[in-house]
Amino acid sequence: MKRCLRDVLRREGGWRGFVAPGVVALGLVTSASAQTPAPIEFGFLWHMHQPIYTPGSNILETDASGRFSFSVQDVHNQRTGPYTTWPRNAIQSGSGQPNLGAQVSFSGSLVENLNTLAANGNGNFQNWDGAYQQARGFNTAEGNARLDLVNFNYHHALSPLLDTRDLRMQIKLHKHMVDQQFGGPPEDQSRGYFPAETAFSARMIPALKAEGIEWTLFDSIHLERATQGYPHTNGSNLYAPNRADQINPALPDEQWVQLNNLWAPSRVAAPFAYRPHMAQYVDPNTGEIEKIVAVPAARYEGNEDGRGGFGALQYEQVFSQYRQLNTDPDHPMFVVLHHDGDNFGGGSEAYYHGNFNNMVNWVSNTPDYNATTVQDYLDRFPVDENDVVHIAPGSWAGADNGDPEFKKWLGDPDPNTGWSPDRNSWAVLTAAKNHVFTADDNVAVQDLQNIIDNTGNATERAWHYLLQAEASDHWYWDGTESWDSNVTLGSNLAVEQANQVLASLNDETTAPSVFLPQRESYNPGGFEWSDTPEPSDFEVWTFAYDVSGLDSVTLKYRLDNDGFNPLDSTDNETYAGGDEVGDWMSLSMSSSDIEPPDGILDPLVRAERFSAMITGYSEVLLDYYVEAVDNNGNIERSEIQSVYVGQSTIGGTGPDGPGFAMDGQLDSEAELAASHGGQNLYYAVEGDQLYLATEDGGEGADVFIFLADGPGELGPAQWAKSGQVAGWDAFLANENDNGWSGWFDTEGDQGESATGNGGGYLEGVLDLAAELGLDEIPEEIWVAVALFDTADGGELLADSLVSGPGNGDGNLDRIEYIRLSLLASVLGDYNGNGVVDAADYTVWADSFNSTTDLAADGNGDGVVNAADYTIWADNFGNTSALSSGAFPIPEPASLTMLLAAGGLLLGRRRD
To answer: Which positions fall inside the Glycoside hydrolase family 57 N-terminal domain (predicted)?
Structure first.
């Protein structure tokens, strides 16, 4: 049976304070009160890049063509400092610090441009690389280069959307360039990697490992979004993650920190998202696992540092907001400040000199912080090989805010014309790379320098142009100047060279090229940007092409057995599968194409779009991939991807089962269970599924619905609120500030929720039997609705309790829960008023021994006798949901007095 960490964190009164085996190693639980915070480590990544502005032309030829309305040479001249001496100067000023340095990602296209300018007599760039070579010779206390020229893609290609083959070639070329341009002994060659736009996906790992890379940076929010219970807010300019990605164990509430004094709309996970971990890739053919050290780059802090460095980012003010959580000296928090090193404030003279010098002075005079390179950090604090996490796909805040679909480079079509310049470019590139791959399989590359110089055989020249066409700039700037045709221009040049090889082939054995399959919508059955859930039925689409033509393109998909994909299992990641997944099902994918508008360069080759719909599923986890077969029988299978399909069936049929719609509106079948002071509790039951709803939190308070098999002892309130709460088994929550909703402390990964965010309801559904560990739904549960002021330390709003006005002590006590019967009728309710109370005893007593007045015949044996009294006694206090409100659970003393008044003293059915 699948289990996740959250499965073992449940206890009466919640999970706070429980430490499960292995949790400390993952950084999920700390004992801040018992430990002194360790110094926070921090470091820098400065990104330097300019593209080949016109594939096939150098910087001088581009300017001479008049293709752009600005001077490309001036763009470089305006950045002379970052491209020459300023980074060296900054690092040199911190030479008194043992570990201080910086990572610099320097693209190969920028190197080509600077060399061309220098060779043409541009005085700004004579011996431009000398300061970089010098700084690489400065060593840290660990013997590493203070200026680490990290591995990068030669032409700034977007790594997650490439194949392993061309990603490896981009990295190979960059490594070769660094060796030729900057020299240095082999030990100075970087072991790290910075992906363009900080765009990461686990599918990159095989290429990185094959090229000898040991660690990679990624944007921290994608580790946070892949965590159960992530407090999502649309204020981060990202829609909610898909539940298929949320497989990292949930974190304690106090480890979700809201940062102040900088732009940070979403909470950050400290220390979890400020520590390197291991990311893994599972080979879908063999099940073999490859791991790489994944170093989180601090999303908001890096963005703020890019405005001007020390002073623009208030280092100590910001870092001190989570320093109290930095209590593991063996794995201290590491804040990596990553941003462009040649743009805006981050590329200014003040950044590298005055502000950086001020930072050096500051860190030299405080023991609480230490500046370090990534390699020094990893050498001093090695990552546990078993500390494996999942990282959702996405990039940094500076482009598309980290959209998991990379929409900045994969924009949606125009709704009126169906045209997307981004998608057109990927269709052209998909076809072009198949020509180049096929040529490479028959006439191999002899020398990487030939690719850079555009010399050598036809395959090497084809790679030269293909890699230029892959630069992400062409997608980033689409719709302006001539960028929309740049990918096609480079691809056409590549195909012309590759076809010189293909012309002599009688047969070929290269598999088809298949673009990473996409889906529409990304969150089927869930929410993206609107208040209306997406349809559960969804489309999977891709581009596919082969030089020999395609025989078939098929969508394969299968059902996960329990809706959760744990990190310690590989069944979902392999084609063979296992006990946790079902058999593959197949759908033939239909092809389509669209004519480019006027003014767009015609491609020599272009892949068609293939698509298929997956319909009829709800509340399930699905795996899927695309299989393409060419006319020679060569087969290509895409990566296996997973998607959680939510409840909405808009536009689709959906399977049989509970029909609760998670849309932030009250479901029609919901009954009113209790009401007080304008706050209402609604419920419904279908099978083992329990539906609960109350007015949402968009009016200044956070809303909670607590659920308990029996309220426990008082314990600390949830979410760092003030006061105490009687122990719960699970709770549903809605955060006022951002409209986020979700379940906490549920068994496994179950539970769906939604909120109207200011104008509707907080609603949720879960399998109650599974939650309570029962074979069937219980006869009753205890429920409480409570609103708290939204800020940390917020107080309980007494009038929010649906059980009544409350006792005003600031706590949610046992007596302030209600007991809710889940039976269609209530055993022992002999007068039919929905409550089993003393009046039902009177009905029983008046008809005792009767065989005709059977209102109190609770067991249906045809006579009112002592057995029916036992039924009444066992169910005393139970209630059905009536408009007058449910019966609050009495404190023991109150129960005693009530029963004594009826002439009896009975025991509670449950404690």
So the answer is: 44-230
